[in-house]
Amino acid sequence: MQNAENSLxxxxxxxxxxxxxxxxLLLSMLGGLTYSFQFLGRYPFPGLExxxxxxxxxxxxxxxxxxxxxxxxxxxxxxxxxxxTDRPLAxxxxxxTIFFAWxxxxxxxxxxILAGHAQGIEWTETPLFVDPLIVLGVVLVTINIFxxxxxxxxxxxxxxxxxxxxAMIWTALNYLMGNYLPQYIVPGTGGAxxxxxxxxxxxxxxxxxxGWGLLYYFVPAVLKxxxxxxxxxxxxxxxxxxxxxxxxxxxxxxxxxxxxxQYASVVASVGIHVVVYxxxxxxxxxxxxxxxxxxxxxxxxxxxxxxxxxxxxCFQCAVQVTLSAQQIIHFSDWVVGHAHLVMFGVFGFWILxxxxxxxxxxYKRPLPWGIASAAFWLCAAGNFILWADLGVAGLIQGFxxxxxxxxxxxxxxxxxxxxxxxxxxxxxxxAGIVLLVVALLKTARGTSAEAGAPAGLPxxx
Amino acid sequence: MRPEKFSFVFLxxxxxxxxxxxxxxxxxxxxxxxxxxxxxMEELALHPDEYFTQMKAKYPDTFAAAFGADDSAxxxxxxxxxxxxxxxxxxxxxxxxxxxxxxxxxxxxxxxSTATEYQNVLQLPQLFGxxxxxxxxxxxxxxxxxxxxxxxxxxxxxxxxxxxxxxxxWFFDKEGNPNAKGLAIVTYVQWLGTWPRVKGLDEEW
Lengths: 461, 205
Hints:
The complex is a heterodimer of chains A (461) and B (205).
Chain A (H helix, E strand, L loop, with lengths): L10 H28 L14 H33 L6 H23 L16 H22 L6 H27 L2 H36 L6 H14 L15 H12 L1 H16 L5 H4 L1 H23 L2 H7 L3 H31 L5 H34 L5 H38 L16
Chain B lengths: L5 H21 L1 H5 L8 H4 L5 H9 L1 H8 L4 H17 L16 H5 L36 H9 L1 H4 L20 H12 L2 H6 L6
């Protein structure tokens, strides 16, 4: 491929991060699907310690966070930061060191969890011996992208760069706080407040800002026009920076954490409406006049369905954090559905869109239209069904739990039809991802020149 | 000062906003609870319960090899090991450890949880949990006898028809007797909720 030593973007690095991310995604989804069979009473590996459902559950979530999303984001940053600053990353050697180090982290993490070395903190069940490596990795990525940003010496940076800079600082602080304070220093209730901040910040201060930062680059790049409003992007960024870190304790409402803190987190959570509507309006106003592009452009479909899911998930968030809603839905499958809408339906879609845009661009060949479009619809439908299904299941569970006369096991029986639908919906999502991987492989091998494929995907530089 | 500047984003957005949330909300419960001393292992294991002694009588060889005697030192060892298994097997992803002031919960799981009950080293890290597939375990200690727990870990649906809890075959040896892991996890489960009672934190319960 076109990979001159001194080129602006190391395309090979970007591609390999995407490949590693997709491998992790497939492994994680296989894990999730396997886990779902436990809920149907038909687990394929009963009594097998290394593939015990509990361990598979932690493997599933951690592979998504650190294997899939972070890998894909590092790849995306390696493309976008040089483009925005007109300077290559700090060092080619450092970039590849990060790539290999991160894959080592992912292998140690997945293997460690399955071997029974999980840490007892949600979203970072990553074994304790891997944690320092992750901190080191975050620091190295920060150096790698800060050098070109600082060298560019812009008086005012583009919105994507704000999100990247803040996300790196937040993540370094958050990872240290969430992994070490509750593990060694702060027990019980105080530790729970800190853990809730970690859980929330991992999504709110790592995945969300990096996701938006990449989208602020890719949507204008695909549409070939600037973002609608600079002022709205300012409001979106600063309200995220202010409100998101204050949301945290809404993960443990009605817990022994002091009530005034719980109330404050509920109020702050309602504040995220400011973020959602300003940012979403900005993107839809950018699309105005180009809406028909959604018919023929797979990346754009992933981006905008992701934004619609983001509105949906944040609206859901601002409603479900109220204390009355929490009585019913907390501890239930509603939350699991919500989490899948966020991680797959929003950030997963944005990453898939980014890949569907960059991959054909790098190989100078379009994606096979039929396969890519089928992949999009399978992912979209599977994810929506899974979300709606688990939402209803959560409500049923919550209302049954309220009645102490209902034996616990009845709440399991009542959930089982929904868990069956969940397994089917998840299979659809997995099939969608497999199809997308097939489409990317065909593009890479140059066998994607299908007859009658609309030229919807931008190929030109 | 333009808010689009690197230094402004870095310092105000990245550092200041994070610490503002940390100080006002995230770390304040920690400071508020500082006056409640954190119970160490010696205190938690001061009075080994009858379930621990019963294990020693029933499985003397495994017990002696794993924990020594049924004194405080052995009990502390078993509790610590059981808690670690509880984490490694992700028990806490399907069983919560806090009872909420919400209808139905007190009838099912006992008194509403209070912050002081969690001021001990076995809640490092805290094990509140965020999902209930199975019931809450805050006060499950003593609800069933050891034999029930061993049979349940071996094959949950045999005791609770329709249960979807996995079988934990690796807690048992070839003859079907609990190994060190099996003894430790049951010791921990039987301990849950008993410490606040001994301590007098939970008198009404």
